[in-house]
Amino acid sequence: MAVDEPSASGVLSPDRADLVLGDDGAAIVSVETYALAVPLKSPIADSTAALTHWTVPVVEIRTRDGRVGTGISGVHAGSGLLCTVIDDYYAAALLGASSEDVIGTWNRLYWLPTHWIGRAGVVHMALSMVDIALWDLAAQRAGVPLWRLLGGTPDPIEAYNTDAGWLNRTENELVHDLSSLLDQGWKRVKVKVGKPDPLEDISRVRAVRRAVGDGTTLMCDANQRWDLATANRMMPVLEEVAMDWVEEPLHADDLEGHATLQRATRLDIAAGESIYSYQQFASFIAGDALRVVQVDATRVGGVTEWLQVAAHAAARGLRVAPHAGDMMQVHQHVVGTGLAQSPPLIEFIPWTQDAYVDRSIVQDGYLQRPQAPGASTAIDPEARRNWQIRGVGTARVS
Ligand code: MG
Asked: Do residues 291 and 164 both lie within one domain?
């Protein structure tokens, strides 16, 4: 005999009937989810993943005044898991609530009983999708792009390009691809490392430095592939080729390893795409375990938690350079919205540009701030027709 799942309520999550609504038009009247599988122009690989598509889970939150706020994430697999968290657990807590209550909603969803099974990963990423949708709505209601609502400057943001340094390219292809980026005006590029044989990495990064010259800023990314011994052996070579930063050299949870490595090198250790909370970032920062904070709004709890991490990091003099799990649609709004000594920097990966109504504009390595009201997350209807994944979310297609 089977039973229904017993219901549970969070003590810190008041029933939505207790909520004070602001503008009646801001009341949430529907919550829908779906996901897109956006094809890449050519397959890519880093040290831990090989991809032909980038998957974009989507939540659309409608308010009584007819507006639609869109929240997104970015995953390799499991888009349906994020949608299910929203559909089965968050939607009931959202319907009837005010979309203007961004912080209150964050806290209510965070402290639902799902807190027990997901302060990181699926549950938290679903929270980030809802938070992004609410910020999108807030900016739409204010009639301004999100960066302006957050007090950002209109200046173009310097970007670095990740889309030519893949591990599945031969050394010659790698050099060719990176060189062609320089021809397009890029001055900062990133290359993947973490080949099974570190000697191959050494050959590749030396070849790349020879090809791009001293005037190009070069970063590398091991995607957590190395152990501490391998990372220690690689550091002198990475120093020799003047890497601007060394990204995710070790397992993402290995705070002590990162701190040990950071103490032993003059290069900056970068991490953050696999760090899911403000508290975990605060621990890494307190432990001097990283110098470049790559907080991603789709991995921490949306724009709200991103702003908190960025402010914390910047106040300690660290660089903030977000990882772009959203392919920068949201990050082009949040970077450069707080006080910081270092100029803002954004990661450019153009994979999902065709999925959105508002495409990003990058010229000569600088991203122009978007001008349309909102967070640039609205999905292009044709993209949805072409790429919506069958059987995922409440807004299902068959
Ligand atoms: Mg990375």
From this structure: yes
- pLDDT band with cut points at 50, 70 and 90 for residue 5: confident
Q: Which positions are catalytic?
A: 192, 323
Distance 273 CA to ligand 1 centre (A): 7
Quote the ligand 1 centre to 19 CA distance (angstroms). Answer: 40
Domain that holds residue 117: 16-144
Dihedral sign of CA atoms 40, 41, 42, 45 in order: negative
- Examine the pLDDT at 397 and tell me if it is beyond 80: no
> The domain that contains 223 carries what CATH number?
3.20.20.120
Does residue 12 surpass a pLDDT of 90? no
Are residues 181 and 318 both part of a single domain?
yes
Q: Are residues 130 and 161 both part of a single domain?
A: no
User: What is this structure's pTM?
Assistant: 0.96
How far apart are the CA of 222 and the centre of ligand 1, in A? Answer: 7
Q: How far is the CA of 85 from the centre of ligand 1 (A)?
A: 26
Can you give the pLDDT at residue 15?
A: 56
| 366 and 314 in a common domain | yes
| DSSP track, 193-243 | ---SSHHHHHHHHHHHHHHH-TTSEEEEE-TT---HHHHHHHHHHHHHTTE
| DSSP characters over 163-203 | TT--TTS-HHHHHHHHHHHHHTT--EEEEE---SSHHHHHH
Confidence of residue 36 (pLDDT cuts 50, 70, 90): very high
The tally of domains found in the chain comes to: 2
Whether residue 398 lies inside any domain: the answer is no
For ligand 1, a single-atom ion, the residues with CB < 5 A are: 221
CA of 171 to the centre of ligand 1 (A): 20
Least confident of 1-10, 32-41, 383-392: 1-10
Provide the CATH number for the domain around residue 60. 3.30.390.10
**Does residue 200 belong to any structural domain of this protein?**
yes
C-alpha 381 to ligand 1 mean position (Å): 30
Please compute the mean of the pLDDT values over residues 289-313 and round it to a whole number: 98
